[in-house]
Amino acid sequence: MNTNSYKLSLKQHNNQTCLQLHQNGLQIRKWFGSFATMVFNRIIRKYSTIKQSQTTAYLRKNQMHGLFTEVTCLYQQALCHYKVEQDLIKIKPPKNYCCIAESLLLHIRMNEIHPSHDDLLCFFLDVYQNRDYKIFSETITLLLNHNLIQVINTTCGKIFYDKNPEPHDHIYFKEHDKLVDCDNETSSFLESLTHVKIDTSDEANIYCISEIK
Predict the structure, then answer these.
(1) Cα(196)–Cα(27) distance, rounded to whole angstroms?
(2) Is the entire prediction scored with pTM above 0.90?
(3) Which of 19, 114, 181, 182 has the fewest CB atoms within 10 Å, measured from its CB?
(4) What's the fold here for domain 83-213?
């Protein structure tokens, strides 16, 4: 590839999907989670003539403006679709928290699997490299105090964040360290299994599955 070529790569980074933009091996930008996949798929559709694979695409220098325009539009659409701006306007967070609260809340709401505390912290540090843990912790507390998210504590000490603040059941896959929602039908089935550990707290259950047989 020549010096006017830019490489988009979709890969796993810190236990989450990451879209990286490089030129000559130098990383320029990166995006994370479902938003990263959304950006990559949009670019593939828009520039159907670019050299590409399932997880890699090459763009020319004159396509960079189009890329960042698409990213900006998709981000604004996501903020609207997931009602992030609408909810943050109601709570009026301090100015120095606004962008971080917006980014964390969108990330939590866009991704189906509930992010763990460690995964969300990695996301924060990747996006806001010059910020410290204190502002991350204070932003999470802000979102929790205004009932925009809820925290889920497992019996093994793992912490997860859920976009749905109302009590409801979850399944925790211990082997893969993943927490997902559990509907009523699945809850009834899991309660009939002797090898599934059930943790009851906060008006809801966490069904802990050590391994899938």
Answers:
(1) 44
(2) no
(3) 181
(4) Arc Repressor Mutant, subunit A (1.10.10)
